[in-house]
Amino acid sequence: MALKLDDVQRAAHLARIAVDETEAKAVLAQLTRVFELIEQMRAVDVSGIEPMAHAQDLVLRLRADQVTERDQHRRFQQVAPEVESGLYLVPRVIE
Amino acid sequence: MSNATLKELSAQLAAGACSSVELAQDYINKINKINKSLGCYITVDAQRTLEQAKTADARRAAGDAVPLTGVPLAHKDIFCTEGWLTTCGSKMLSNFVAPYNAHVVERCNVAGMVTLGKTNMDEFAMGSSNETSHFGPVRNPWNTATVPGGSSGGSAAAVAALLAPAATGTDTGGSIRQPASLTGICGLKPTYGLVSRYGMIAFASSLDQAGPMAHTAEDLGLLLNVMAGHDPRDSTSLVRPVEDYNRELARPVSGLRIGLPREFFAAGLAPDVQRAVDEAVAEYRKLGATVVEIGLPNMQLSVPVYYVLAPAEASSNLSRYDGVRYGHRAAEYADLMDMYKRTRAEGFGAEVRRRILIGTYVLSHGYYDAYYIHAQKLRRLIARDFTEAFKQCDVIMGPTSPTTAFRLGEKSADPVQMYLSDIYTIAVNLAGLPGMSIPCGFDGGGLPVGLQIIGNYFDEARMLNVAHQYQQVTDWHRRAPQGVS
């Protein structure tokens, strides 16, 4: 299955990465190479095999539903691009 | 200063032959002299380093020292270090001062180890040459026209150039073992789940694992003793009894069954690498080990499987970099969507953007089963191959990388050529097994060759034993590049 320019642009939109047409064409050429490699694995019959989601078949632990963290929002927000009154500022989304 | 090991430095400190401050100052002086030409470190902060060293000296004076108290090391810039810049090799985090310590860093600090700095790496650990770093490439101290491997290239080159006696690294598809191999040092990727990933910036969560890099197998064990252990803050961190990974070092290797996968010695392997690995295996035979040929028939699928699974997980993990809570934000934008898109286009380099796009595509509607689920099924087949193989042998050996260090720029144009540099390491991550690389010789051009040792789950102590016994009868691990000592 050949990758098309549309596919690159759609993935870029879903991934929220700005790509202009020139760059999309260059990326298409490189991704085509990568997908040629990936196609090798698609030829293998995997019927009856259970997917392996993790390095070991781990059972995720549960913990008590309790507050264990103390409030450190001032400290954590020091590294934020724009903050006001403890809130992260982004461009207006509702007019 | 020679290529002192952690063990030797620890003994010198205990004997009062030097102080931690003197030791740290020695390394700082060398870093100031050589780092500019090699690019091993992204951040050094002599004042912080010397403060830590002073504290370690005081602790020793108070009789409160443990073996590695006062011994310096470098941290890969993927580990959050409170108060230090933590960039992950990316423009996206070029202004990020971590507000907390990674579990690994915390453990090293508790042991009283002294941080020399943060080492350079491929951006977000995506690369096999350290050329994708926003902060410029790292050069291999054995030949500065060649790469040190990646993604833990700065850690590897720093240890090889004697700018740190040891360093932390991370390995998602070979990122500890391949650079260790290319720079002639030792590196260990532990069993998945042994070392906490808390505070270690995520690339592909089902594969990422932290490990030690150093001059000797014994040093790897000393550092792993500090790094490993259960941490409830990482849901994949395993609850296991505390163990001394160096407890089996002295065990003879006679009777050891070494499995040699025929797929590791097939087309694509450089003759000089094959020769050095063959000679290492012959050395093991002399020590009384036996050799059995094994098969890992699905191994050739590991690269394509990895390049579906790792980018898929990365595309999800890296969605957090949106210019809102931390890191880079574009200076100009029209609205929120435009801010996200420009921030991420500017903040991520070409290789990271490429992998995010691959991952987004294989997870998107209509392709999820055909790519992602299909790859997860093959992952099970690859893991099963190892389970079968370990019925016939105790450890698996082979080359770590198909070639020695390649030239800067040599593989930059074709991503697939670069990806194939990890052909012998990736399957180990997919299976979650422990793997290590130790130096075993040089090619005709004087570049180091690495021997890969793969163990069964939780067999780190045995692997370190096997590597240590080899290092008792060879001196490859004692060699240092010219012009660094």
What does this structure look like?
The complex is a heterodimer of chains A (95) and B (485). By secondary structure, chain A is mostly helical. In chain A, 39% of the residues lie in helices and 4% in strands. The longest helix of chain A is centred in the first third of the chain and has 22 residues, at 21-42. The model of chain A has no long low-confidence stretch (mean pLDDT 90). Chain B has 485 residues and is α/β, with parallel strands linked by helices. Helices cover 38% and strands 13% of the residues of chain B. In chain B, α4 links the parallel β2 and β3. Chains A and B meet through α1, α2 and α3 of A and α9, α10, α11, α12 and α13 of B.
A few lines on this structure:
Chain A has 95 residues and is mostly helical.
Strand content of chain A: under 5%
End-to-end separation of chain B in angstroms reads: 6 Å
Number of strands of chain A: 2
Rg result of chain B: 21 Å
Short descriptors:
heterodimer, A: 95 residues, mainly alpha, two-stranded antiparallel sheet, flat, B: 485 residues, alpha/beta, three-stranded mixed beta sheet, 15 helices, 11 strands, 38% helix
Topology:
The complex is a heterodimer of chains A (95) and B (485).
Chain A: H1 5-14, H2 21-42, H3 73-77, E1 83-84, E2 87-88
Antiparallel strand pairs in A: 1-2
Chain B: H1 6-15, H2 20-38, E1 41-43, H3 46-61, E2 72-76, H4 103-110, E3 114-119, H5 153-160, E4 166-171, H6 177-183, E5 186-189, E6 209-214, H7 217-227, E7 257-261, H8 271-286, E8 290-294, H9 302-317, H10 336-347, H11 350-363, H12 368-389, E9 395-399, H13 415-419, H14 426-431, E10 435-442, E11 448-455, H15 460-473
Helix pairs in contact in B: 2-3, 5-6, 7-15, 9-11, 9-12
